[in-house]
Amino acid sequence: MTRTAALIGAPIETGASQAGCLMGPASLRTAGIAASASALGWEVSDLGDCRVAPQPAMRHPNTAIHHLADTAKLIEELERAAFDAARNYDLPIFMGGDHSIAAGTVPGLARHAADQGRHLFVLWLDAHPDLHTLDSTQSGNLHGTPVAYFTGQESFEGYPPLQASVDPTNICMMGIRSVDVAEQKRIAAMGIEVHDMRAIDETGVLPPLARFIDRVRASNGMLHVSFDVDFLDPSIAPAVGTTVPGGATFREAHLIMETLCDSGLVSSLELVELNPFLDERGRTAQLLCDLTASLMGRRVLDRPTRRFA
Questions:
Q1: Active site residues
Q2: Is residue 309 part of a domain?
Q3: What is the domain range of residue 239?
Q4: What is the mean pLDDT of residues 195-208?
């Protein structure tokens, strides 16, 4: 049976500190994300971009915060778009944009899961836990807030009220290696499963991933994969404004995506923080497309040879 996928762009960079990821969706399209999925037998629909007009400024007691109104409006629009896409397609793929888009996509997906009488699980592949609230962020960059928001934490005045949240114990974070003090305290208090890069170095990626997949399957859950470019080591993925050394390797990343494919449980995907302005001849965009293809059924022997020299 032909499976359906939807591409939805979210060209937003107001949640970040560095310009460029506004071009992320266009870069992924240029790199051939639709064509590679179609070649694997998927029926792909490109639904265009979710955009919002600049909003009147919204003040907040934390004066470091910037673009609060724009981000809040985008969250509102993306929540609806994610809910509709999850109802109508087997695999919605959201293309960012900075990681603030997850504050809209994940609640929309959680609302759809709740309508089906199921729970949403989130595999968070990222160097950062993004667990700041509007009160605790010191940088004011709202791409550091989505997990705290969609798990229903307090101190989000200005963001839209949540229609559905995610149980923190249904989140698995892998690749974490840059955590602020406030985020450390929330991880401990909320019971989020976290595998930092030291843990991955010690055990490999498969044991924690397999355990999480087993939990999703046992609960008949829906699985959303949120993939931040900085999950990858910057030596293979330079196109990100928040590079943190020591990230996942090419082989680890493909193994994760192929294992997720084998599970048959992934119901949605987002690719965020791709900054083409910082890329080298499109290598990071191409890598993300190849990783997406691995998630959608491509195997090692099917991979094309790439040249970047």
A1: 99, 126, 128, 130, 143, 228, 230, 273
A2: no
A3: 4-302
A4: 94
Q: Quick one: how many helices (H) and strands (E) in the chain?
A: 10, 8
Residue 97: asked if its preceding bond is cis (omega within 30°), the reply is yes
Buried b (16+ CB within 10 A) or exposed e, 60-90: beeeebbbbbbbbbbbbbbbebbbbbbeebb
CA–chain centroid gap for 79, Å, is 14
Residue type, 225: V
Residue 2 confidence (pLDDT): 79
> How big is the CA angle at 118 (ends 115 and 121), to the nearest 5 degrees?
120
Q: What are phi and psi of 27, to 5 degrees?
A: -65, -40
Say how many domains are in the chain. 1
pLDDT at residue 309, as a whole number: 47
Q: Which class for 120: exposed (0-12), middle (13-18), buried (19 or more C-beta within 10 A)?
A: buried
Beta bridge pairs of residue 228: 272
Q: What share of the chain is helix, strand, coil (3-state, %, to 5)?
A: 45, 15, 40
Whole-number Å distance between alpha carbons of 152 and 94 = 22
Q: In this predicted structure, what is the pLDDT of residue 84?
A: 98
In percent, the amount of the chain with pLDDT more than 90 equals 82
Q: pTM for the full model?
A: 0.94
Tokens of 244: 């943190």
The CATH number of residue 16's host domain is 3.40.800.10
- Residue 78 is assigned to a structural domain of this protein: yes
pLDDT digits (tens, 9 = 90+) for 46-104: 999 998 888 898 889 999 999 999 999 999 999 999 999 999 999 999 999 999 999 99
Residues in the chain, overall count: 309
Q: Using CA atoms, how far apart are residues 295 and 43, in angstroms rounded to an integer?
A: 15
Q: Is residue 298 a part of any domain in this protein?
A: yes
Contact between 110 and 117 (Cβ < 8 Å)? no
Q: How far apart are CA 82 and CA 89, in angstroms?
A: 10
